[in-house]
């Protein structure tokens, strides 16, 4: 065998020494050619994408179930069954919602009230009962007030004039007379020193001061007793003029005025002083309004 005719050949064809002839058609059969899409196909793809996004936003539960079913079930029939069940459930929910909106519900305030046994309660009768209870309460309050008034009247007792309230009222009257004298002297432009010096000698000045004092006394007694049923001295010693029934009367201020006029006509302190001596209210006997005390 000639050395030039000798050729070294591998045992198999995997080492690449043999040229393998492959048909061009077979070589390109496994390669996918990406062809350019037409404008119509691009528009349809965009429309389908927007439709899927809108559907997922409108009802995320359906989108969730669809993706979950596609991932978990390989069988197309099972996927279709699940989708049908979702659609049927959605339709049932829509029907129930429509029924809920159309059915009229009765207002709770219009429902008849019921008692503990479940029987309906007559609201008119209940209103009558409430009205009667209010009337009973008002009647009871009036009765209680009347009883309190009777108790107070029983506790009130007639008393004689006392020196301590008279002295306290006398000091109050002197102070009020001095207060009223100041503007009076300013209006008449009279020197106060001349008035003080002439009070011991001049009869005219003495008469003027007496009139001023009597006017202040009557003003003080009428106002304090008419509005407060007692003067400051009487209030300090728990005394009042007249009983509770007399103080509530319309004629009470006129009786106070009559008492003051009689007291002034008899000399202011004459009847109170005599009453303190004999332990009886002489002015009260004459006018019907006696001094009373609750203790």
List the keywords:
295 residues, elongated
Describe the fold and architecture.
It is a single chain. The chain is mostly helical and about 300 residues long. Among the domains are: about 40-95, no CATH class; about 155-295, no CATH class. About 65% of the residues lie in helices and about 5% in strands. The chain is built from 13 helices and 3 strands, in the order H-H-H-H-H-E-H-H-H-H-E-H-H-H-H-E. It has helices at about 25, 40-60, 60-70, 75-100, 125-155, 165-190, 190-200, 205-230, 230-235, 245, 250-265, 270-280, 280-285, and strands at about 155-160, 240, 290-295. The chain has a 3-stranded antiparallel beta sheet. Helix 3 runs antiparallel to helix 4 and helix 6 packs across helix 8. The longest helix has about 35 residues, at about 125-155. The radius of gyration is 59 Å and the shape is elongated.
How would a textbook summarize the main sheet?
A: 3 strands, antiparallel
- For the secondary structure, the number of strands is 3
Termini Cα gap: 167 Å
Report the portion of residues in β strands: under 5%
- Which overall shape is indicated by the principal axes computed on the Cα atoms? elongated
The SSE string, one letter per element, is HHHHHEHHHHEHHHHE
- The radius of gyration over CA amounts to 59 Å
Number of helices: 13
The spatial strand order of the largest sheet comes to 1-3-2
Q: Mean pLDDT, rounded to whole units? A: 73
What are the low-pLDDT stretches, counting only 5+ consecutive residues below 50? none
* Helix content, binned percent: 55-70%
Structural class: mainly alpha
């Amino acid at each position: 065998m000639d050395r030039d005719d000798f050729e070294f050949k591998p045992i198999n064809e995997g080492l690449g020494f043999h040229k393998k002839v492959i048909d061009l058609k077979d070589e390109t059969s496994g390669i996918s050619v990406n062809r350019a899409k037409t404008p119509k196909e691009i528009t349809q793809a965009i429309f389908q994408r927007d439709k899927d996004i809108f559907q997922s936003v409108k009802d995320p539960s359906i989108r969730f179930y669809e993706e979950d079913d596609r991932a978990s079930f390989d069988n197309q029939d099972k996927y279709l069954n699940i989708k049908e069940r979702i659609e049927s459930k959605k339709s049932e929910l829509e029907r129930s919602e429509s029924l809920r909106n159309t059915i009229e519900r009765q207002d709770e305030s219009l429902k008849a009230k019921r008692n503990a046994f479940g029987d309906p309660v007559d609201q008119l009768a209940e209103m009558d009962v409430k009205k009667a209870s209010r009337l009973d309460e008002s009647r009871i309050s009036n009765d209680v007030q009347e009883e309190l008034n009777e108790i107070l009247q029983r506790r009130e007792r007639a008393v004689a004039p006392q020196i301590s309230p008279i002295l306290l009222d006398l000091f109050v009257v002197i102070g009020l007379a001095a207060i009223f004298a100041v503007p009076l002297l300013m209006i008449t432009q009279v020197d106060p020193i001349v008035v003080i010096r002439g009070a011991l000698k001049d009869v005219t000045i003495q008469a003027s001061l007496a009139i001023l004092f009597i006017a202040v006394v009557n003003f003080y007694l009428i106002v304090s007793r008419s509005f407060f049923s007692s003067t400051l001295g009487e209030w300090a010693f728990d005394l009042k003029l007249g009983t509770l029934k007399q103080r509530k009367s319309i004629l009470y201020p006129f009786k106070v005025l009559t008492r003051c006029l009689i007291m002034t006509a008899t000399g202011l302190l004459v009847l109170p002083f005599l009453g303190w001596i004999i332990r009886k209210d002489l002015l009260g006997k004459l006018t019907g309004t006696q001094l009373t005390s609750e203790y």
